[in-house]
Amino acid sequence: SDNPGASLERAADYAQRIIAMGDPEGLGHTIISYVHLLKRRYDDALATSTEARARRPSCPMSNGLLAEVMRFYGSPDQAVLRMRDAMRLVRNFPPFMLSGLAASLRDSGEIDASTEAATEAMRLFPEDIDSQVTLCCDKVLAGSVAEASQIAERIRRADPSFSISHYVASQPYRDQSTLDGIVECLTQAGLPE
């Protein structure tokens, strides 16, 4: 979109219309929860994504979005469980599910499992920057700064304009210490501020 803010408002408007009509399928709640997350309205995002999952318990998207909200909300252990549920519900899942699982595992301190998930995400979705960032952080956290630097170089090749500040600004974490940890890891790997 040429105007992401306007697109976000249009999505919120459509979602509110669906909710006003009873939202029997939970799609309105799914959409509005993502809008709330992007606007850093964490409690609203958690409430509406929980409602979306209650309305659509077997929907991979509502489960995956609830997992993402939980991760950014600061509940990575719960996010891991929800994302695994989401991935079980769909044979071919979108990249955000596997990269979200990897990031949730990293955020919960399960670095080996995160490394495995991020590596698989990079194999399946080689251009996914989030997976590369997670693996880069994993390598720093595991004490393999040289390997992290190689992944950082891959990130720079995939996105020559990549900067830590721009990336971190796109990550709607509620907990600043999580973002600080990501910044520290990416800095140690040699990525530009």
Notable characteristics:
globular; mainly alpha; 193 residues
Give an account of the 3D structure.
The chain is mainly α. Helices cover 74% and strands 0% of the residues. The chain has helices at residues 4-20, 27-38, 42-55, 60-73, 76-88, 95-107, 111-124, 129-141, 145-158, 164-169, 176-188. α2 runs parallel beside α4 and α3 (42-55) runs antiparallel to α4. The two termini are 26 Å apart.
Strand content: under 5%
Largest β-sheet summary: none
- Please count the beta strands (DSSP E, at least 2 residues each): 0
Distance between the termini: 26 Å
Summarize the topology.
Layout: H1 4-20, H2 27-38, H3 42-55, H4 60-73, H5 76-88, H6 95-107, H7 111-124, H8 129-141, H9 145-158, H10 164-169, H11 176-188
Helix pairs in contact: 1-2, 2-3, 2-4, 3-4, 4-5, 4-6, 5-6, 6-7, 6-8, 7-8, 8-9, 8-11
